[in-house]
Amino acid sequence: MANNRAVRVGEQMKKELSDILIRDIKDPRVRFVTVTGVDVTGDLQQATAFITVLGDEEERKATLAGLEKAKGFIRTELGKRIRLRKTPELSFSFDESIQYGNRIESLLRDLNKNDSNE
Predict the structure, then answer these.
(1) Is pLDDT at 75 greater than 70 in this prediction?
(2) What does the alpha-carbon distance between residue 67 and residue 74 come to, in Å, rounded to a whole number?
(3) Residues with Cβ < 8 Å from 29, sequence gap 6 or more?
(4) What's the half-sphere exposure (Cβ side, CA atoms, 13 Å) at 95?
(5) Overall domain count for the chain
(6) Confidence band of 18 (pLDDT split at 50, 70, 90)
(7) Domain that holds residue 99
(8) Rounded distance, CA 51 to CA 70, Å?
């Protein structure tokens, strides 16, 4: 079972990270980013932020590069907003679950079309 404190810190980090990306990041590569979740380790030392990006593969790579470049600033801002002894080390990862869900939905839709045509 996940540590309750880690879950609460992850949820708070998700809210603050979304706000930071919308209001404070000025990098033009970091646009149309949605934070879908944040996993924090039990010792609160590391956090993985799962993001989705609206756009093609090239825009996704550029966004990830922009986030990696701004990682220090983002961590500093999180430290100011969330009262923790040590701000977790951030890493960013693409959330593939939305694309996976869309693919399954389109396959099911195609199956339903084929069944209704027969």
Answers:
(1) yes
(2) 9
(3) 62, 63, 65, 66
(4) 18
(5) 1
(6) very high
(7) 4-117
(8) 15
The domain that contains 28 carries what CATH number? 3.30.300.20
Closest by alpha carbon to 27, among 77, 54, 65, 84? 65
For residue 70, the SS3 value is coil
- Give the contacts of 4 (CB within 8 A, at least 6 positions apart): none
- 112: tokens are 């339903």
Distance CA 49, CA 92 (A): 5
User: Amino acid letter at 116?
Assistant: S
Scan for tokens 């679950």, then name that residue: 97
Contacts of 81 (CB under 8 A, 6+ apart): 16
Structure tokens at 83: 């009262």
Name the 3-class secondary structure at 85: coil
The residue among 42, 44, 50 whose CA lies nearest residue 18 is 50
What is the pTM assigned to this prediction? Answer: 0.79
